[in-house]
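Weekly modeling sync, notes
Attendees: AB, CL, MP (scribe)

Item 1: holo prediction request
CL wants a bound-state model with magnesium ion before deciding which constructs to order. AB pointed out that an apo prediction alone won't tell us much about the pocket. Agreed to run with the ligand included and paste results into these notes for async review.

Input as submitted:
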Amino acid sequence: MSVTEQEVKYKWTDFKSDQDVRWCPGCDDYAILKAFQMALAEIGIPREKHVVVSGIGCSSRLPYYMSTYGFHGIHGRPIPIATGVKVANPDLSVWVITGDGDALSIGGNHLIHVMRRNVDIKILLFDNRIYGLTKGQYSPTSNKGMINRSAPMGTVEEAVEPVALALASGASFVARTDAAYLRHLVQLIVEAHKHKGTAFLHIYQNCYVYNDGVFDDFTAKEIRDDRNIIVEHGKPLIYGKKRDKGLRFKGTKFEIVEFEPGNPPEDITIYDETNLAFAFALSKLYWPEYPVPMGVLRRVEQPSFEELIYGQVERAKQKFSTDLNKLIYSGDVWEVK
Amino acid sequence: MSVTEQEVKYKWTDFKSDQDVRWCPGCDDYAILKAFQMALAEIGIPREKHVVVSGIGCSSRLPYYMSTYGFHGIHGRPIPIATGVKVANPDLSVWVITGDGDALSIGGNHLIHVMRRNVDIKILLFDNRIYGLTKGQYSPTSNKGMINRSAPMGTVEEAVEPVALALASGASFVARTDAAYLRHLVQLIVEAHKHKGTAFLHIYQNCYVYNDGVFDDFTAKEIRDDRNIIVEHGKPLIYGKKRDKGLRFKGTKFEIVEFEPGNPPEDITIYDETNLAFAFALSKLYWPEYPVPMGVLRRVEQPSFEELIYGQVERAKQKFSTDLNKLIYSGDVWEVK
Amino acid sequence: MGKKTEKLEKVTVKFAGDSGDGVQVLGDQFGNATAVVGNDFATLPDYPAEIRAPQGTTYGVSSYQIQFAAYDIYTPGDIPDVLVAFNPAALKVNLTSLKPGGLIIVNEDEFTEQNLRKAGFTSNPLEDDSLSSFRIYKAPITKLTIESLKDEPIGHKDKERCRNFLALGMMCWLFSRPLDPVINFLQKRFANKAQIFEANLKALKAGYNVCDTMEIFPIHYQLLPAKLEPGKYRNINGALATAYGLVVAAHKSGLQLIYSGYPITPASEALHNLAALKQYGAITIQAEDEISAITIALGATYSGALGVTGTSGPGLALKSEALNLAVMTELPLIVFDFQRSGPSTGMPTKTEQTDLLFALFGRPAESPVIVLAPLSPADCFWTSIEAVRLATKYMTPVIVLSEQFLVHSSEPWKLPDLNQIPPIEVKFRTDPNGFHPYIRDEKTLARPWVKLGTRGLEHTLGGLEKSNIFGTISYDPENHDLMNKLRAQKLQRVAQDIPDAQAVGPSDADVVVVGWGGTYGHIKAAVESANQDGMKVSMIQLRHLNPLPKNLGDLLRRFKKVLVPELNLGQLSYIIRAKYLIDATGYNRITGKPFTVSELLNFIKDEYESLRMH
Amino acid sequence: MGKKTEKLEKVTVKFAGDSGDGVQVLGDQFGNATAVVGNDFATLPDYPAEIRAPQGTTYGVSSYQIQFAAYDIYTPGDIPDVLVAFNPAALKVNLTSLKPGGLIIVNEDEFTEQNLRKAGFTSNPLEDDSLSSFRIYKAPITKLTIESLKDEPIGHKDKERCRNFLALGMMCWLFSRPLDPVINFLQKRFANKAQIFEANLKALKAGYNVCDTMEIFPIHYQLLPAKLEPGKYRNINGALATAYGLVVAAHKSGLQLIYSGYPITPASEALHNLAALKQYGAITIQAEDEISAITIALGATYSGALGVTGTSGPGLALKSEALNLAVMTELPLIVFDFQRSGPSTGMPTKTEQTDLLFALFGRPAESPVIVLAPLSPADCFWTSIEAVRLATKYMTPVIVLSEQFLVHSSEPWKLPDLNQIPPIEVKFRTDPNGFHPYIRDEKTLARPWVKLGTRGLEHTLGGLEKSNIFGTISYDPENHDLMNKLRAQKLQRVAQDIPDAQAVGPSDADVVVVGWGGTYGHIKAAVESANQDGMKVSMIQLRHLNPLPKNLGDLLRRFKKVLVPELNLGQLSYIIRAKYLIDATGYNRITGKPFTVSELLNFIKDEYESLRMH
Ligand SMILES: Cc1ncc(C[n+]2csc(CCOP(=O)(O)OP(=O)(O)O)c2C)c(N)n1
Ligand SMILES: Cc1ncc(C[n+]2csc(CCOP(=O)(O)OP(=O)(O)O)c2C)c(N)n1
Ligand code: SF4
Ligand code: SF4
Ligand SMILES: [Mg+2]
Ligand SMILES: [Mg+2]
């Protein structure tokens, strides 16, 4: 994302719009909004260079609360809309705000295809494992058996893992965190921005009204350090309040190792964010069997979609005539006198 | 798939319709059709119990050539159509015939969701890495850089791997082979039928007119044994004309080992079709770096969608009144005299 | 009760408060109490677009309007005679639509500095004279509730939550309604929450008694029972009536009901209601999107089940392609469109009637389908049944144009005797002799419907044009022309099978008001008072929109003037003009709200007089 | 040339053979040769639905029809005077549509037992007398080709492939066309395949000479040049003209063209053509489906580019929801619909005009868009430009209703002087002062268009209803009513900006034939001969369908009878009836083929006479 203006410093409040925010009191969306605004301030690009595109859902209301350009699209389609915005104007910093229903149910196909195209847009998926705006039906990430308005006897479908899906689709950047981890969230949004290509950020978000507490068993303040693991490229996979646990890749999967704080066994896995097998294996780890992985799970360099498209245009211009008259007059032309 | 009739033996010709087949001479679709008919004969269920549902594409013309029930749907939607057919009538043996464009481009979302639902339908994906019926545009499986009618300077998109996508979506049965491997294909179709739940069969299919020879470098008769590996549950991963090569899972990936025919090193991987890591790793192996994996890559037992749905209906019937009058008269009822 | 009693003919009451104030429950229960004393009534709940907007904000206000009367009425009323406002915001948003001299009951405890600011009041309306044209009654509803529950062993928050039942008690006193039906409800609702039950009960009674003892209201009101047809009644809204209708239709036709939908407001209500009826064999599937939803339903229909899907606005657009496949394969797929304000996301929680032309022409190429529209909440039950009857008899898809207004609005429903409802004859083809997929019934032009699995009838359907009778792929030019015309002719056959349109009104009326679907109640009320005002006006309300009743053209030509009020820009008018070359005059408003009876009455008056002048 | 020469006024020739016989190239080149001698012409290629059906089957037959004349003509001709059949199947499928006494040239080498059987002949028509009513010329085309190439250093298959150029040589002799343009083509086509070039050249000349020397044809024909307007001409089909129009419009408006589509027959042609024009800045994206295609185009439009998408039938249905978003956000999105036979998959390679009402009403709720339809292959160029002009000026989406027939059909195009084409003024808003997203231009009612990245104009658009001027989310009932009416009024403004409808024909005509889009040529030819036959008939061909030209109603009322031929069941008729209460008489056929001039002439005659009788 190249920006012509020389960079200036911003406050997060510079990215607030004058609209009052209308999410339910207690909704995690407030926290993500704040983190997003803080991240944009840190990124330091002027607001007119940002475009925030969303679908439909509670989460997708976010663009109205930003002082940047925004587009509140239709359900499931923010990704292609953002693709069009970006291809038309590659200078822009383009963000997608979407929900688990928006991105994984009706919009699932676009998610797959943007990953393999590697369009330079940043996708923030607000995963509350429920349909909030339509008042509490299950979503593709809802836990099997969950009782809700459209499944009074419980859902019968296995939940889909967004991270695994993104990886299988060829994602070049995949990260995860929880809405409550403000600093971490800000940091990951900034990392996503730095990445050239599609960045996919999976954010656990608590829906206070229809799915309150679904993530508590591994994100609640007191226990989170022992039930999450924040991975970092080149660093050993160590976690725990006391930093006394770690993960070791053994055979074809990870296993937990406990140790004396301070001296971990050296066969603890050093994380490699370019190793797909690691990322895929992590994507299948859940509490209580395992700590839930957070952080940048995958990051690889690949040319972006719009880069390649404009590259072809340039090459064509060098190779062929660009004279419109020549075009029209191509083929056999004859004259009537 | 429970069938009431007691089984009878069939010839593959019993499953031919009276319509003449209209694919291009030389098209692999003829081979798959034949294999499918042979498989149905082997399965031995009467033809009225089979329903073959397809989308749109050359491949999707197949139902017209079958003597079973068939439904030639709309582009990208054979999977939900088949889901409706199956849920309405779980006794039926329901097949989906689809193409790489039909199932992975416009229909990608349904593919993801049927996998996690595990509807008991069998999906045969004819992957010719091209749009045949519309005369030669690239598809999601086309090799990056391929020159074709809609990409005269070459495609700029990474190809998607159908097997990886199916695995990430929670597929309970995934297999792969090539249209030219008649016996293997028949065998896999029969295996797919035996599996209770969604079975996904990825079939390489040569499009003689628009993408001829795209699979030759690893499926051509002379070299195929050295460039494919046919995996089997519980068997070591050995391949090669002389059975002198194998795969060993080392660290986080497979590596090729060569050895004296007859005495393979015992650290050669014994394939486990229930190990997701194996299947996922295999899905990323391509010639020339690796042999291309074929056979049943994943198979696990899970309850099927329609099973769970009817289970809930049964439990509801036991729990609640089934008297329609009671229903209508529920709530506060008052009488006007 | 030592208070003055005044007799009323009819009254409209509106409860308004924060989403958290429980006004919807309050409204429902007041409705039950009202039903029991035998008044006729109609209700109109109104939800905010936001799930739970911050407390005290105007956009967070939820409300419930009910009109009840000593004779039969057809609408929830235009504007309330009585407003019960639980906070300043509720007062604010409703001030503009209130009868001068109307009654306002406020929970004065909520009129704090902060709440007043949130609602955008600069000064306290209870103190300045801005409300002088109304009759205000301030009740310390919160205090009274807390006070009345001081001995209850529950938390303060829970006590506060009983506010709405205290208010309900007051209203029951004010309008002389019995408390028993409410108490029954509380017993069921809090069956295993004894303390909460006790508390609400206490609050309810306290509210009632306080009016008896304290000087809150100088008088109270009585309404005589309405002369409704004898019979058993219950209160029902359109969403529930739709679901019941489908379950009954499945039963009457012997078909397995498979309802496949993707959540969308307000269509989700139908999905929720049916999901709770598994014991009646109803199967519901929440699909990954609307395309999947309709194609699952279509697959089920091909398989031999009753495949139904339902949606609203944006979701309907997504079903267009698959509906065309149903038209080509001539399968009895049923699609419910619960119309909401558009285009695009529009105003998702508001109502309008703008999908009529889409229902007729919203598919590429020539693609005729049957189109029905229920007239009232209870009529949704009967329309579901009619949809199934016509779809299966003519092997043609049906679109039912319901409305957001009907989904939530409720009215007394005279309960039918299920045995009296005629069976829906579905004859699956089983005989292989002479079978072809597109061989047609001479009378209906329907092709045979085959339950998959039937031996000897194996065949393949699909979206490619097929030869008539034989059903093989056909590029024959004449066959395509024929098939297009046959698909259209089927609809003409349906026209022979539906009731003629009836003009209701004075025999010598020369003006007719033509409406369709959910405007029935408002038009009926307006036309009746027009006649009471000495005008001679008839009305025709259409439930069958495609095909139209075969007599409609001739019927309309009997009138000098044809008036067509619609919650759109003139869609039925357009159809009437195109089909009958009649210069219909439209009254077209799209505000997201139902018509008011008075605006319709004015429209009728103006047109009636202009006709007299020329 | 010692042969008799006969002068002809006009002639229709049809080449037919296996997909493999190269009849399309043959046809194109015959067209070029024809153009150069200055005849006017029009062509109609016809492809089989199957990619490459088994050789010799009737459903594998591909054909190419061309009419050329010594004066200007408007259609590819009804039925051929001359049929060139490369095999029995080609003869079989075309026998039914051939002029009695017509010329049939067959490649007798292909009339083998086996081929005759495949084609469904029980006996050899060249031997029995079934063709007695035609003039048959048997030419051993294959043998002659092989013979003439016996010394060429290429394989047998390659030699056989030169058949079509040998046949072309014969046709050039028969109709006295020069070989040079064909030779030019061969040089380009086989620039770096010298041997293949030589072979085809030899075959071409051999075909020409053999006619001179051998007794194949007794006579040959000559046609005088047509008196076309002076100027430079080229042969162009609708698909190419559409692409050129878009590239020129992008240039004239200074906008970046982004065409995003999903392959579908016949729309894919536009995608292919534009994909090859990258050097002119055209960007094409092949999306994963039609919904992605249109939303990518919409995103590009919001970003400040010229976003265009194109599709056919089933794909159009999928774009309905996103089009509504474009209507709500008032963005100048352009959608091409290359109409094909439906509903559903229908007959994908055939033509019809059945999407008109869908274009008008194919979106839920009230959703007005501009609708245009090109009249001829070359007119596709001008219609692309008009679409861009109107969309950007009124900030309203445009649907262009093209037709499968126009996509492949070609005609001589008088090349425009690009400098004479007026610029398309697009003024992006840059001034923050007084900016609001929905502040409107008084004249056009257009809201401002902002290039993203512009400082100080940051704003958010979306599908929720917005307040007029300010563009904030609004649930205000009156605002929604206003916005619905404003969106509709915009179209009335457009009506002021498009040319009035013209009735072409005798001043005293009392019958008018009204058509739209691609039926132009056939209607024109029919109306002209009607007038030649002494009738007094005018014609109006509509290019702007929404809004309609403002004078159309008055214009139509001048006539006693309004005839509306359409390749649908009466869609324009429906609109004319609804808007003007005029009892339009339709002629409606849906065969997947264009009208024939003669059927239109009969229709006009009948109606003309019936009018005289009353
Ligand atoms: C085409 C279409 N289908 C359905 C809907 C209704 N709808 C709006 S948001 C939504 C899902 C919301 O869930 P999610 O995407 O998880 O967002 P959340 O509200 O949970 O943040 C649905 C089904 C719609 N607006 N458009
Ligand atoms: C909604 C819709 N979009 C596009 C098409 C055009 N179309 C038909 S088949 C096809 C793709 C065919 O490719 P694939 O699925 O790989 O099947 P194949 O022909 O290669 O066997 C397309 C784009 C269509 N029929 N319907
Ligand atoms: S419904 Fe849930 S997700 Fe939506 S705003 Fe309320 S708390 Fe947040
Ligand atoms: S186009 Fe290709 S895939 Fe289609 S039938 Fe011909 S060879 Fe087979
Ligand atoms: Mg959600
Ligand atoms: Mg393919």
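Recorded for review: The longest strand of chain B covers residues 292-299.
Action items: CL to compare against the apo run; MP to circulate these notes.
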